[in-house]
Amino acid sequence: MAPEIKYNKIFIDNQWVEAEDINAAVKAAKRAFHRNSEWRLMDASQRGKILNKFADLVERDADYLAELETYNNGMVLSMCRRFIGASAYHIRYNASLADKIQGSTIPCDGDAFSYTLKQPVGVCGLILPWNVPMLMFISKVTTALAAGCTVVVKPAEQTPLTALALAALLAEAGMPPGVVNVVPGFGETAGATLTHHPDVALISFTGSLEVGKLIQQAAGTNNLKRVVLELGGKSPLVIMNDADHETMMNKVLGYIEKGKSEGAKLLTGGKRIGTTGFYIEPAVFADVKDDMAIAKEEIFGPVQSIFKFNTLEEAIDRANATNYGLAAGIFTSSIETALQFSKHVEAGNVWVNTYLHHGPQLPFGGFKESGIGRENGLDAVNSYLEVKTVTISLPKKV
Ligand code: NAD
């Protein structure tokens, strides 16, 4: 299909759709990506300095941003405060990468000299989910900026607030106009327009598998967009007999006893709590069979399924019998068991005697239907770069 845009509309699924805001944002991002723009002529080290300044501003406004994130998606304030520290750390890591992106020289056959350049892919559309909005914004945006791209961000329709506040801080940090654009809007309109836009070179999306499939289709419609997809998961956590149950048990019992001694009421799981807000007691299911819906489908809420198994081989086979492959964990005191499990489980992240250990340096993403590409670390920056091979005729003899 021809990449057609006219009168602020875009052609999606055989019809013209209003696309004024996204079109304006993509236009600004495209202008900011022109080879002679301020952004493209800027030294890579200066890109890093602006990002470091952005980290300073996030720390300066920590209280405000934490409260805003609580209003944004309902996450408790103490957790939002912790995310601010993680966010600043994340930005500084990506800032440090900006001037370390480099190609290589290649000893090729024939009378020639070859080298590679790593260059930003162009305008990137970044589509965010509602569950960790601020950190997700920071992870995707600062990775793309470290690579030298320009971006149009579409936060989830439920959670636009911190994305807008962070965009203002990026401007204050010295980001040239048009480099970062935020357009709040619905997925079916703003999101779909971005994924169909012929001037967008890459879509990085975090969200559900269903929408991830739509995005991959859209990415091939008006041009051939690169896609990075971080999708759902159904991640196994294996507890071996030789795991340190006692320490874990005492820790859990300690919390329960502490809660009781401080006057808290011990609740059983699965029911709604009160009528104010939308809170559910954490629920634990036992005797869950592999083919039940709660075993296979992503619930994305406080529901835990516990399965019994006899051998490591069986645990690996059953853990792999899902179309997802985001993460997995194992608790064991045997290094051999840990290494065997890590090698054979089909998941993008494996945690041993820990769970959800993340960091800006650690690539994160999924196998199979849990996604394409990685967030964080050098592997993430590579997603936002094209490799250009340059070969120059050069006789060996002088
Ligand atoms: P979602 O897929 O419904 O929405 C995510 C984003 O996509 C939103 O911004 C939405 O507006 C947009 N969108 C919706 N339809 C679209 C379309 N047709 N075209 C373009 N964009 C569209 O997901 P959600 O409910 O916001 O988030 C929960 C999901 O995200 C869960 O499946 C969860 O596992 C996943 N998630 C994954 C990771 C990870 O790292 N793999 C992290 C967080 C959340």
From TrEMBL:
Spans traversing the lipid bilayer: none
Database matches in InterPro entries: Ald_DH/histidinol_DH, Ald_DH_C, Ald_DH_CS_GLU, Ald_DH_N, Aldehyde_DH_dom
Residue numbers annotated as active site: E230
Residue ranges the record marks as coiled coil: none
GO MF, one annotated term: oxidoreductase activity, acting on the aldehyde or oxo group of donors, NAD or NADP as acceptor
Start and end residues of each Aldehyde dehydrogenase domain: 17-252
Pfam families: Aldedh (PF00171)
Keyword set, alphabetical order: Oxidoreductase
PANTHER family (alphabetical): ALDEHYDE DEHYDROGENASE-RELATED (PTHR11699)
Similarity annotation: Belongs to the aldehyde dehydrogenase family.
Protein known as: Jg23468 protein
